[in-house]
Amino acid sequence: MEKPSNLLLKLSRQLFTDTGEQETFIHSLLTPKKFNPCILWTQEKPQTLPFETAPALSWQPHFIDRLSPTEKPGKHPLHEQGYYYCLDFSSVFAASSLLSIKEPVNIIFDMCAAPGGKSIFAWKSLQPQLLLCNEVISKRIGMLISNIKRCQIQPCAVLNRDPEFFGEIIPQTAQVVLVDAPCSGQSLIAKGEKADGCFHPVNINKNANRQKRIIANAAHIVAPQGYLAYTTCTYSPEENEKIGDWFISKFPHFQPQQIPHLTPHQSHLTDLACYRMWPHTGEGAGAFTILFKNTNSEPAKQLPSNFWDENSFRFINRTNAKNPLS
Ligand code: SAM
After folding, report:
1. Cα(315)–Cα(114) distance, rounded to whole angstroms?
2. Which among 28, 120, 181, 205 is least buried, having the fewest CB atoms inside 10 angstroms?
3. In testing the pocket of ligand 1, which one of 42, 136, 289 has its CB within 8 Å of the most ligand atoms?
4. Which pTM does this prediction carry?
């Protein structure tokens, strides 16, 4: 095992007081492993699964299968036919806070959608009347549209705008808003992938500032009594728990929600209800998740009547009507 960098040592001390746990955490990053791949069934499962599966966790939704690490589901013909979307278990963990939402959902808005995993998870679990997927980086739109089309996710519209745009045009309209934020990507290291500069404080601060801007803009879109899910795949508290603290200080009408099935994963770094998957537990490379509820109680707003005419959608997947909600 190579020697940990000073920045990784510093992070491990920030995350854990126990030296044994610091060492196990560092070890999991310096000796990357292959975690179980997962599939999210978007169409009905075949009676006999074409893959070897790992045991399901107690809270695992019926539309998710965890596969044995040697399976390559992206290469099976059912993938091309749109039967499922491939994702890792950390993403399932992060998106699973949505399983606690029991109210009917008209609109789901995903602010950072490409390549589409959390959008598809949200669509499958909450069955909204409309899924709006936004991705600000133009070159990432193609893979998002391709996944939405392949998996036949509808009604769905894909947009390509900066987060700031939406607070003004569709305030308080979506029952569920997702912010799967761009981050320093430290958990990539636990999968043996590259994440240059991911432990550097300048990079972490740059990401934290961007995350604050995105989540603040996202807050304006959440309907009263609606939810905002914030997730990352990085370990630094500055991009996770501290974003949660900052957010409720600026938007005190949002309250973090307890997610019963995630209680064993409560972050030990805060008293806020928020949850962590750590790389050394073996289930996935790592994730952070927090679900806020907008406690305001006035009626939700409707999408403006000119929304479909005046916005340049990159792609619309809908059954018939021009406006999927009409
Ligand atoms: N939610 C996606 C999924 O589950 O497949 C993954 C999203 S990835 C973690 C973060 C996304 O945020 C990237 O697609 C990235 O292009 C986008 N992004 C980058 N900068 C952004 C910004 N300033 N505002 C909004 N999104 C941004």
Report:
1. 13
2. 205
3. 136
4. 0.97
